[in-house]
Write a structure and sequence with these properties.
The chain has three domains: 66 residues, Winged helix-like DNA-binding domain superfamily/Winged helix DNA-binding domain (Arc Repressor Mutant, subunit A, Orthogonal Bundle), CATH 1.10.10; 112 residues, Periplasmic binding protein-like II (D-Maltodextrin-Binding Protein, domain 2, 3-Layer(aba) Sandwich), CATH 3.40.190.10; 104 residues, 3-Layer(aba) Sandwich (D-Maltodextrin-Binding Protein, domain 2). With 300 residues, the protein is an alpha/beta fold.
Length: 300
């Protein structure tokens, strides 16, 4: 980095870009407009490019400004984490693992997927549930160490992510006692008769289930759709209807919710991926997860 480069100048530019103008940035920082403007000009001078341009009465980013903002997002996101990471390192005790959990993944599977690291004596596990794309954005900004999801990350050079398949599981159908006999009789065509509960289409499994139902020429009697897999199993347990879930979780569903397996859809698989940013120094717990999940057999 050139000695003429100043991170304070970058910070002022970053605030201007985030606030959408120099006046609003000056108000946020409680500084004079002229001071902020001068700091941004110094940054442009050190980089040798224009980062902002006027468009009518608005100030907009140039292509170089967009690139600078993207890098500044990374830099200042890491800066926010610095005090926490330094204090944890100084204590010599806490090993922090910050994970994003895609809302489409079967929550019952998350604990099993993380089993290889849960015996770490100084583990501090932070799990953040959210939608798939926003979680990838948080990962790109290094606010997360990794994301657990039901699909691989789409190709995107800007995100610089890598996906590894940790495990797969065939799908079975589970019913509460109220509907177990009717659902098992003439399965899978019984799904056109008994009430069916499904994940919403935010879950990758939903498209596979819809394709399977179409192939079997079944028009299901859909009684409910749920974004949250835990909520789906809760409503199934109350007797609202029959639900699909990974075979690997069948024993848990029977013990905790009293649900009975009434049939399988072996052609439908749920996938579990660990998505992470490639770094020169990998988080030791991510390395442990990746080694345990080699071959995609972690749930078997």
């Amino acid at each position: 980095m050139s000695q003429s480069f100043n991170y304070r100048h970058l910070f002022y530019f970053w605030v201007v870009a985030k606030e959408g103008g120099i006046a609003r940035a000056a108000e946020r920082l409680d500084m004079a407009v002229q001071t902020i403007s001068a700091q941004v000009r110094e940054l442009e001078k050190s980089l040798g490019v224009s980062l902002l341009r006027t468009e009518g009465r608005n100030l907009v980013l140039t292509d170089a400004g967009v690139a600078a903002l993207h890098e500044a997002d990374h830099i200042f996101a890491l800066g926010e984490l610095l005090p926490v990471r330094v204090r944890e390192a100084a204590s010599g005790q806490t090993l922090r693992l910050n994970l994003g959990i895609s809302d489409g993944i079967a929550k019952l599977a998350v604990h099993r997927l993380l089993t290889p690291v849960l015996d770490e004596p100084h583990l501090r596990l932070l799990c953040h549930e959210g939608e798939f794309q926003p979680l990838l954005g948080e990962l790109a900004l290094h606010k997360l160490d990794a994301v657990l999801a039901d699909r691989a990350a789409p190709p995107n050079p800007a995100l610089r992510t890598t996906s590894q398949l940790l495990g797969t599981s065939a799908i079975a159908w589970y019913a509460p006692p109220l509907w177990a006999e009717a659902a098992a009789n003439n399965f899978p065509h019984s799904l056109a008769v008994v009430p069916v509960l499904l994940p919403t289409d935010h879950a990758a499994m939903r498209a596979r289930i819809d394709h399977w139902l179409e192939r079997e020429r079944i028009r299901p009697r859909i009684a409910g759709e749920f974004e949250d897999s835990a909520l789906l199993s809760t409503f199934a347990a109350t007797g609202m209807g029959v639900m699909p879930a990974p075979v690997s979780l069948g024993e848990h569903l029977a013990q905790t919710h009293g649900l009975v397996q009434v049939g399988t859809a072996p052609d439908v698989q749920e996938q579990f991926h660990l998505i992470y940013s490639a770094r020169k120094v990998m988080h030791p717990l991510l390395t442990r997860l990746l080694e345990a999940g080699q071959g995609g057999m972690l749930l078997n």
